[in-house]
Amino acid sequence: MVEKFRTNVETTAEAGYVLSVLNIKFPGYRMNIDLEDCDRILRVKAEAVKATDIEEQLNRMGYKCDVLEDTIYESDVKVMNSMTFSY
Questions:
Q1: Do strands 65-67 and 41-45 pair parallel, antiparallel, or not at all (unpaired)?
Q2: pLDDT given at position 83
């Protein structure tokens, strides 16, 4: 399952911070933030994504986070499958 969220994360440094915290809190999830998208999309891939947990975590960190429509596009799957992560 791929879940998409609209955020207000603006910089590469903020994205790195957010992703590092989320990777600790949700170790089985694959995630990225598209800063080039006007909605600063956070994509999360996992067998079962708990959207409210993601929203609450970002809100606690001082960011806005709203789940987007539950539509999976072929382009999202390609992006998630090609993602690389550094830990």
A1: unpaired
A2: 65
